[in-house]
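Input sequence (280 aa), recorded before submission:
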Amino acid sequence: MGFDQNGKARRSASKSAARRKAGPKRWPSEAEQTLEALRAGLIDALVIPEGSRERVYALKTFEELEQANKDLRESQEHLLVLLNERERLMQDLHDGCIQSIYAVGLTLEDCRGLITRNPAEAMHKIARAEANLNLVIQELRAFISGNTPQAPLDLAHEIGRTIEALGAHAPSFVLDIDTALAASLAPEQTAQLLQIAREAVSNIVRHAKARSGRVSLRRRGRKVQLEVSDDGEGFDATSDKQSGLGLHHIAARVQKLGGTLRVESSSSQGSHIIVEVPAV
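Predicted structure, token format:
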């Protein structure tokens, strides 16, 4: 019995001596904690060799990196939204306000020859140019304020007004608009098709040297077809050099509507711009 007690005492004393020899438990240093975190894959770090040693620079925890990546993705998405909005504004300004100002310029050009020859007609055209400029001012104010017109557009009337504003130097246009079909279009379709027609008509006036043109809107099966044609000098529709800014804008608007664009033209044979979009 005494041996067992002495033995236990000796073993207990041995354990205490071992603990005293080992000393108090040491808390890992910051460098050691960093290395452990690196081994566990909890942080990212930069290791720079310095002679025979390596210096470790902890950069970010993976949570911080993930948050940084998330912020970057959100910034990229926001930038894409801004770029798309900028492109839309450029198209709207080019196809709307700029084309309207160009038409006013043509009207005033007509007036130069009418002032002495037919003052009454010149005054009538100047008054119409003034009215159209006021409309442009309203459109620009809408762009600046971010407000869009709420009233539905009358497609046939707006296309007719666009052609009327071109003046005497423009070709003679024929309008063939299915008014019932035009009235059934969605607001976005109406707005985009109007801008497409304006751009196509403007291209005819500026480039085609045509005597006549035609704008038609008809149903073709399950499609709505807008066609703008002329009897002008035409161009090589297969050449990239002939694909000017106007046609690029038309193509972008057609794409927004989920439609198709076909351009048919050849030298001295006039041109046909044919747009087809899904019917509502």
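Checked by second reader. The chain has a mean pLDDT of 79.
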